[in-house]
């Protein structure tokens, strides 16, 4: 029962993010109980169909996120914490206030972002491509600095929207990226996730430079879905007493 979400077909893309999502959701759904020790990394890797390195990285980011704890010594191991993070109570001006609102935002980002990439591939200029490549290079230097990375990352997505020449779409993307910042602020930094994210940025820009609308859409979809998977694994638990009433 505890490993039910980890079983099934191994992820073929966004492997680290998918593993974080599966393991994090297993904890949130109570499949792994508070205080319960996780199976060994080797066993989890076999069940999930991923490498031990991926499992170890997923566990480390879930420890940083407050869902797991590591104990050393004879009776050591990785354990589910007794009081995992829950949604903050009452944040004035917050738009994303619970897991339902978070999922709606991520759905909106996926639908709009994929379409924007497809349209941008047909309209982007050479100077805009050069600027995007420069931005990807700047992001490569910031994989250990989440706040700085996040700011430039948002600028890159807005710049892709600007390449469509559509002011409405650009405004929508800017608004979505601003709201996404609230969610990013609730999860721990993962250098591995940021590195993988920027490799996907480079792939998206390459597709845009080639004018390949279908490939640009597919690359952006994979990229945005990876962000969704990571967030779904690391966002706080839903709790009745932490809901903000309106």
Describe the protein's architecture and organization:
The structure is a single chain. The chain has 246 residues and is mainly alpha-helical. It folds into two domains: 4-84, Winged helix-like DNA-binding domain superfamily/Winged helix DNA-binding domain (Arc Repressor Mutant, subunit A), CATH 1.10.10.10; 99-234, GntR ligand-binding domain-like (Four Helix Bundle (Hemerythrin (Met), subunit A)). 61% of the residues lie in helices and 3% in strands. The protein is built from nine helices and two strands. It has helices spanning 15-28, 41-48, 52-64, 99-123, 126-140, 146-162, 167-184, 191-209, 213-234, and strands at 68-71, 77-80. It has a two-stranded antiparallel sheet. A hairpin with a 5-residue loop joins strand 1 (68-71) and strand 2 (77-80). Helix 1 (15-28) packs parallel to helix 9 and helix 6 (146-162) runs antiparallel to helix 7. It is elongated. It starts with 14 loop residues before the first helix and ends in a 12-residue tail after the last helix. Residues 240-246 have low confidence and may be disordered.
How is this structure best summarized?
This protein has 246 residues and is mostly helical. The protein is built from 9 helices and 2 strands. Strands 1-2 form a two-stranded antiparallel ribbon.
């Amino acid at each position: 029962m505890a490993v039910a979400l980890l079983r099934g077909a191994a992820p073929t893309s966004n492997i680290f993010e998918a593993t974080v999502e599966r393991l994090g959701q297993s904890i949130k759904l109570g499949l792994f109980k508070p205080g319960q020790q996780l199976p060994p990394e080797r066993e989890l890797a076999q069940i999930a169909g991923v490498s031990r390195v991926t499992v170890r990285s997923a566990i480390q980011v879930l420890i940083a996120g407050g869902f797991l704890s590591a104990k050393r010594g004879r009776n050591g191991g990785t354990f589910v914490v007794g009081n995992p993070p829950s949604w903050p109570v009452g944040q004035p001006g917050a738009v994303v206030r619970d897991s339902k609102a978070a999922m709606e935002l991520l759905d909106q980002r996926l639908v709009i972002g994929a379409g924007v990439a497809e349209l941008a591939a047909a309209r982007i200029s050479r100077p805009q491509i050069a600027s995007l490549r420069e931005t990807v290079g700047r992001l490569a230097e910031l994989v250990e600095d989440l706040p700085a990375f996040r700011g430039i990352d948002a600028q890159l997505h807005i710049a892709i929207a600007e390449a469509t020449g559509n002011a409405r779409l650009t405004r929508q993307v800017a608004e979505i990226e601003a709201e996404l910042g609230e969610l990013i602020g609730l999860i721990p930094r993962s250098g591995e996730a940021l590195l993988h994210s920027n490799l996907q940025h480079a792939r998206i820009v390459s597709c845009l430079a080639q004018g390949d609308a279908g490939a640009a859409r597919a690359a952006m979809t994979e990229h945005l879905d990876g962000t969704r998977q990571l967030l779904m694994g690391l966002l706080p638990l839903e709790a009745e007493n932490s809901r903000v009433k309106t």
